[in-house]
Hints:
It is a single chain. It is built from four helices and six strands. It is α+β, with helices and mostly antiparallel strands. The chain has a single domain (4-124), classed as Nuclear Transport Factor 2, Chain: A. β4 (87-96) and β5 (99-110) form a beta hairpin. The N and C termini lie far apart (33 Å).
Amino acid sequence: MKNQNLDTADITNVLEKIYFKGIYEGNVDLLGSAFHSGSLLFGDVKGLPYAKTLELYLEGVKNRQSPKDSGKPYKGEILSIHAVNSIAVAEAKVIMYDFIYHDILSLHKINGQWLIVNKMLTDTNS
């Protein structure tokens, strides 16, 4: 478990400055840079199954009103990060529109850069 504090700081940076900011602004170029190109997204929204490729996810972000432009509350919060060598899992809460999403993100350090390689999400009441 080499450099776990440094890795946690780097993952925090990716989540706060790229992932959360990209979602908030609806900036698909910025948001996409947080993900590995082969990432898949799974979960449920309003109790219905959710499964998308990264390309389909980013297309949806591109074609919706951004949380920034919606005027509704938005908050991205890191709940936990657990890194071991070149792999990590992060839990996050994203409040946007009328949803509270709970994300579980798998990350991998590739060529010195932490990237999200899988996203699981569900909407919750808290």
